[in-house]
Amino acid sequence: MDIVVCMKWIPDTSEAELAVDSGGKDIKKDNLDYDINDWDRFAIEEAVRIKEKVGGKVTVVSVAPEDAEEMLRESLARGADEAYHLWDDTFEGSDGYAVSRILAQFIKGRPHDLILTGTLAEDDGGAQVGGMLAAMLGLPSSALVSKIVIQDSKVTFNRELEGGLYEAVEMDLPAVLAVATGLNEPRFVSIRAVRKVAGMDIPMLDLGEVGLNEAQVGSQGSRIQVEKVFLPPEGEGAEIIKGSPEEAAARVAEILKEKGGIG
Amino acid sequence: MKQIFVLAEHRKQQLRDTTWEAIAAGRKVAGEFGAELSCILLASNPDGMADQLAKECPKVLVVDDPKFETFNSDSFIKALTPILKDRGPFMLIMGNSNSVIDLAPGLSVALDAALATDCFGLEVQDGKLQALRQIYSYKVNSVVSFKDAERVVVTLRAGSFPFTPVAGQTGAVEKIASPLGAEPLRKRFLNYVEAEKGDVDIASADIIVSLGRGIGDEPEMEAFESLAETMGGVLACSRPIVDKSILPKYHQVGTSGVEVKPKVYLALGISGAFQHIGGIKGSPLIIAINKDPRAPIFRVAQYGIVGDLHQVVPALEAKIKELKK
Ligand SMILES: Cc1cc2nc3c(=O)[nH]c(=O)nc-3n(C[C@H](O)[C@H](O)[C@H](O)COP(=O)(O)OP(=O)(O)OC[C@H]3O[C@@H](n4cnc5c(N)ncnc54)[C@H](O)[C@@H]3O)c2cc1C
Ligand SMILES: Cc1cc2nc3c(=O)[nH]c(=O)nc-3n(C[C@H](O)[C@H](O)[C@H](O)COP(=O)(O)OP(=O)(O)OC[C@H]3O[C@@H](n4cnc5c(N)ncnc54)[C@H](O)[C@@H]3O)c2cc1C
């Protein structure tokens, strides 16, 4: 079973103070830490578990600037067999479509029975790449996938619907599955595992090596264009209770009492 | 962009609310462009649903095929591609439901269309369409355009385009022969799997203490259990808490979890992603404790404390105990 996992390297904005950059089309990112997209952590874990069960090889790939090597190396420590880093300055500004094209071009030329992505990336929230990639490769796909079982040339899984409901689905391989968070428990990565992969080569492929031209990537190869970004207006919303934790807690306790929040 | 299409979504032979919201958006954009609005229904035994749609939409395209019994991205892409591709420039609008998350990306590639997902605003500016989205964990707004795309697919965030019926219309219903042949689908629906039921039903609780990723990786649950007990409430949580197996799924509040409507919703370390907020809209009093003053949860909460929940939670429990004396 040849499994390819696509991983995205994203800025961690969960607790950061954000500001729009001078171009007005993105936020300032120089002070942000980058991390692996949470959804992809579950994808790599699932790939390694499938390999451990049915045998095969796990290949990890990311379209990402240089510092993402850290994520790819961590994936090797998590059990991937090889990792590829696709980057070229011309990739800058690629939308979901252009990123999918880069990934599709790379994957096309290698064995692939199963391709795993996250359903969504927490930075752009596009939820596009899995399904686009599948269509470009001519494969069936599904998103929000958990409980994956591989049998012969088929895969069965649950797909999340609303309100706690799931649908059970069967699909022919090769296929693309965009996984849901929570489908497994990503393993702890030991220092030993990290050391073991420290010397492994992670090839970096540029535009030509991937096999595309400039018109197919970056903003030229994109279908969506960011016009501007802005922070939502402040002011509307909660009354913020000031003071020390004790003072604030005292005020909230009073509000709770007034409004029946102490049952 | 002359034609505006809306894809009707259904489950178990019922149209879903997302369909009506997509029609509301379609009306707005069709109005601004001076374009024709049509609804597309792919279903098995579609007549009842088609009649409902025709009351609200000037034109309904219907394909009847048993393969459309469930919303299957494989059969839907196969059928929609030839139907839409020959109709010139168009925009296709769908709700950003979990089924459409499955369908939209592949469909947009098959249609050779530009795609913007999870949009909560659509504007026509100088004859060009722009969509409003949110990025970076829903903390930043982004306006995107579609270059000169002749075909555009957008999916809509639930609740962004409220629907008001205009009834009294009788839209034309056009039946289209199913483009699907006899060949088997590569993706096959097996059955529905219902949510697991638990020992608490957060949907009927009056007081909810809800935990988010801000409680940390190895949280001291006793403190939260104790606070909930002191308040006479139950514990609930956001999705990452379920993902980490800290609480079972039936505690999850949100669009893919449980919708709740307690008298009081206390959100601890929850950022307020729209899928979470979608589950608490019914609550008249939301109080949030979060380190980040810009956390979106503060936009829907009535009261907020900007601070570390680990400090506030014990203090809050102590104060409540005092007041209860
Ligand atoms: C301010 C700003 C706004 C943007 N707005 C848009 C927009 O509205 N529409 C748009 O199409 N693009 C937009 N982009 C471009 C965006 O960066 C790319 O579209 C992005 O790489 C595509 O991923 P996504 O976030 O849609 O991924 P998703 O489709 O949400 O990611 C799902 C999965 O796909 C895989 N994946 C995604 N990206 C990569 C990658 N680079 N390498 C390997 N695997 C990957 C991962 O497995 C991931 O879990 C914007 C960029 C910026 C800076
Ligand atoms: C199809 C789909 C369905 C989904 N369904 C659901 C759903 O049903 N329910 C749901 O909840 N989510 C759902 N999600 C996920 C959702 O998008 C968010 O990822 C999730 O709600 C985030 O959870 P969170 O707020 O706990 O975590 P985060 O977004 O990581 O927020 C953590 C917050 O804690 C704060 N914090 C950190 N430390 C502290 C501290 N010490 N004291 C105080 N505050 C602190 C941070 O400032 C931050 O705001 C769904 C997503 C998708 C794509």
Which key phrases capture this entry?
heterodimer; A: 263 residues; 9-stranded mixed sheet; two-stranded antiparallel ribbon; 26% strand; globular; B: 325 residues; alpha/beta; 9 helices; elongated; binds flavin-adenine dinucleotide
Explain briefly what this protein structure is.
The complex is a heterodimer of chains A (263) and B (325). Chain A is α/β, with parallel strands linked by helices. In chain A, 28% of the residues lie in helices and 26% in strands.
Describe this structure in words.
- The complex is a heterodimer of chains A (263) and B (325).
- Chain A is an alpha/beta fold.
- Helix content of chain A is 28%, strand content 26%.
- Chain A is built from 7 helices and 13 strands.
- A 9-stranded mixed beta sheet of chain A has the order 9-8-7-10-6-1-4-5-11, with helices on both faces. In chain A, strands 2-3 form a two-stranded antiparallel sheet.
- The longest helix of chain A has 17 residues, at 38-54.
- Chain A is globular, with a radius of gyration of 21 Å.
- Chain B has 325 residues and is α/β, with parallel strands linked by helices.
- Chain B contains 9 helices and 18 strands.
- Chain B has a 7-stranded parallel beta sheet with strand order 7-11-6-1-4-5-12, sandwiched between helices. Chain B has a 5-stranded parallel beta sheet with strand order 15-14-16-17-18.
- In chain B, strand 14, helix 5 and strand 15 form a beta-alpha-beta unit.
- In chain B, helix 3 crosses helix 4 and helix 5 runs parallel beside helix 9.
- Chain B is elongated.
- In chain B, 55% of the residues are buried.
- Classes of the chains: A alpha/beta (263), B alpha/beta (325).
- Chains A and B meet through helix 3, helix 4, strand 7, strand 8 and strand 9 of A and helix 3, helix 4, strand 7, strand 9 and strand 10 of B.
- Strand 13 of chain A pairs parallel with strand 18 (303-306) of chain B.
- The complex binds flavin-adenine dinucleotide (2 copies).
- One flavin-adenine dinucleotide (FAD) sits between chains B (98, 137, 212-214, 238-240, 252-257, 269-271, 273, 275-276, 279, 289-292, 295, 308-310) and A (14-15, 120, 144).
